[in-house]
Amino acid sequence: MSKARPAALAGLALACLTALSAPARADEGMWMPSQLPQLAGALREAGYAGDPAQLADLTAAPLNAVVRAGGGTGAFVSADGLVLTNHHVAFGVIQYNSTPERNLIDNGYVAATRAEELPANPDFRVLVTVGFDRVTDQVLAGTRGRKGRAYQEAVEAATKRIVSECEQEPGIRCSVAAMYAGSDFYRIRQLELRDLRLVYAPPRAIGNYGDEIDNFMWPRHTGDFTILRAYVGKDGKPAAYSPDNVPYNPPSHLQVSATGPKVGDFAMLAGYPGVTYRHRTAAEFARQVEWTLPARVELFDALIAVIEQAGREDARARTLYASQLQGLKNNRKRAAGELEGLRRSDAVRQRTADEQAMLAATSAAERREIDALAEVLERDNAMRERDLLLGVATSQSQLLRSALVLERLRIESGKPDAARAPGYQARDLALIEGQLRQVQRRFHPEVEKALLRELLGRYQQLPDAQRVAEFDAAFGRTPEALAQALDALYAGTGLGDEQARLDAFAAAREGKALPADPLLALAARLVPAQIRLENVRKTSEGEQLRLRPAYMRALAAWRKAQGRALYPDANGTLRVSYGKLAPLQPRDAVSYAPVTTVAGIVEKHTGQVPFDAPQPLLDAIAAGDFGHTADPELGTQTVDFLTNLDTTGGNSGSPVLNARGELIGLNFDSNWEAVSASWWFDPRYKRAVHVDMRYMRWLMEKVYPAPHVLREMGL
Question: The whole model's pTM is what?
Answer without folding.
Answer: 0.91
